[in-house]
Amino acid sequence: MSRHLLLLPAPEAEWARLPAQEHEKGMRSHEQLHRDLAAGGHRLVTSAPLRPSADAISMRPDGAGGTLVTDGPFTESVEQVVGFYLVDTEDRADLVRICTEFAARGDLVEFRDVVADGEHDHAGEGS
pTM for this one? Predict the structure, then answer.
């Protein structure tokens, strides 16, 4: 069984301006994603929307052994991560297919493999 994190980036300001019917369309797409995950035998561990990025608190090393704490996200960009799904699956290819169909309905998806217990991932070391 492998675990995958589906990050949902979106332009927060643009989303806030969309009419109610677009929000409804988005909710129906998420409901379809839930059905597709279940039908494919994928286990949804958890999912949630996130509060706006303006409410984030960012923490980074200050280079002197301390921490620099700032309000807001790490980077200013058009798109922010607005939600996520954490999914366990035996069939990564099918999960990618389902996410591709979800994206085709209008959602952005960043598909990330979670490093398994005992597996070493050196890409993030030192950061």
Answer: 0.82
